[in-house]
Prior knowledge:
Blueprint: H1 3-16, E1 25-29, H2 35-43, E2 48-51, H3 54-63, E3 70-73, H4 82-88, E4 91-95, H5 98-107, E5 115-121, H6 135-145, E6 151-158, H7 166-185, E7 192-195, H8 201-206, E8 211-214, H9 216-219
Parallel strand pairs: 1-2, 1-8, 2-3, 3-4, 4-5, 5-6, 6-7
Helix pairs in contact: 3-4, 4-5
Amino acid sequence: MSHIAYNLNQIQELINQHDLAKRVKLIAVSKTFPVEDIQTAYELGMRRFGENYPQELATKGQQLTQNDIEWHFIGNIQSNKTKLIAEYANWVHTLTKASHATRLNDQRPPHAPTLQVLIEVNISNEDNKHGVRNLTELTELANHINQLPNLKLRGLMGMASDSSDEALINSQFKYLHECYEYLNQNGFELTELSMGMSNDFPLAIANGATMIRIGSKIFGARDYGN
């Protein structure tokens, strides 16, 4: 058994311990890992892969042409890189600005299906993290996205603090779920909560996560020198 197969089995066993396991979609964060590793995971049944860098997303999208791969862009969005994201992503988890939403809408290829998007919320309230910071910003951006025909707002995304304090992390995931409920109570039809990574995904699932983003615990340690 390959290390990727072993790791996927271990993670799935942990997911299955939760009552809400059936609603959880595992996204394999494949940034910096070679296409051979993605191909291995694909052959093991994985279909959702997360990338942080637009050029890497585009390169892998060109090399891996299986029609049922879902590419999830989960990195910071820069205005000069939105075209690559619009062309190669199926999902974008990290929308924080109306201007970026407009660019993605305008640059989405005519033949491509609607781009599925999430708004990133800064649930840790940390200056070094991205995301909208309050319900007013969140509602304004959600309303803007709903006016764009090539985008479909599906939910919210958040990153908890890098902390061993489970009570703190739990409170941050709970806040994201409250934001999600607030929008749904105000006429939006959201279905997805993207929260939880390698070290905190069990807490995220307990708080209603429908997407968890796991990389090194699937593929192994990253070599950023590559």
